[in-house]
Amino acid sequence: MSQQVRGVVALDLGTPVTVETIVVPDPGPGEAVVRVQACGVCQTDVHFRDGGIPGTFPILLGHEAAGVVESVGEGVTDVAPGDFVILNWRAVCGVCRPCRDSEPEFCTSPRTASTPMTLTDGTPLGTAMGIGAFAEKTLVHAGQCTKVDPRISPQVAGLIGCGVMTGFGAAVTTGGVRPGQSVAVIGCGGVGDAAVAGARTAGATTVIGIDTDPRKLEWAKGFGADHTIDARDTDVVERVRELTGGAGADVVIDAVGLPQTWQQAFYARRPSGTLVLVGVPRPGATVPELPLIDFFRRDGAIRSSRYGECVPSRDFPKLVELQLTGRLPLQDMVTEEIGIDDVETAFARMRDGEVIRSVVLL
């Protein structure tokens, strides 16, 4: 039978979130109900609240989560009640062109639950990234549940479900960072720090963190940055070149997504290097005008990275193992632990750069 739980909802575009009573139905075929233990506060949730990412209001927010499977619907075999799981927003469909071509990381039709959760008056809820995990329990497609080693804390495990995977994958998978290479990361928030840590884990010998906030530059050092650049008073391109013997970085990751940071990344990479855009651009943002000859002269690659080219069943267990063996200090990303009533305040703290991640405990 359906259950009533508390959840954080954006009732309308741009309005402060509120805690509402959510009706969670029994799982249908291919679905699972998960008891959420922890959920990170991510900028993507703000994008949903404010319309930067299209969604249907009211929206149950939260997507960077871990918890325990409570019940499953007909036909579910990959997870079972009692399993500790990280939730993901790329439950691959298996039938689209990328999936058929053995490229599930580019799946164009990821699966979500077909049965809606509702408010108590029956109003259907949209869900952030098809998850909706700022709630005591949530209903998802079973493919959105990735079973992992339960020794990892829920606070840390949840971050793997979005921000960590996105930044780490931008460096290691999309950027293809190799031992001995140089890497520059523009924007040292949660995703940028995960990219810094990923580059270090992959064996980069020169890792450069770039930001306009001194606190974030200090955070980047903690995740493996050898050098930092304060973009407020330094020519980023020239300084990256100085730190890389004049050539530019082998891989430059733009974890901000502004036209000016993309342009910095373009010119800060060496001529045959790789630019990775992982920061989400605002609607209407455009690539700055650049001389076409500059594109022609730089053979390398210009790539975007959505979710770090994630395949959850492949990547989440690896990241958990790296954390448990001390090779990836993800626990340092948890700046504070908060309650479900504190999400709007956490949004403000994130906007002001006061935290790497606030994590809601449920």
UniProtKB/TrEMBL annotation:
Q: Which GO terms describe its molecular function?
A: mycothiol-dependent formaldehyde dehydrogenase activity
Q: Which Pfam families match?
A: ADH_N, ADH_zinc_N
This protein's cofactor list reads:
Zn(2+)
What SMART domains has UniProt attached to this entry?
PKS_ER
The highest taxon in the source lineage is Bacteria
UniProt-listed InterPro entries: ADH-like_C, ADH-like_N, ADH_Zn_CS, ER, GroES-like_sf, MycoS_dep_FDH, NAD(P)-bd_dom_sf
Q: Which residues form the Enoyl reductase (ER) domain?
A: 14-360
Write the record's keywords in alphabetical order, separated by commas.
Answer: Metal-binding, Oxidoreductase, Zinc
EC assignment:
1.1.1.306
Family, per entry: Belongs to the zinc-containing alcohol dehydrogenase family.
> What is this protein's name?
S-(Hydroxymethyl)mycothiol dehydrogenase
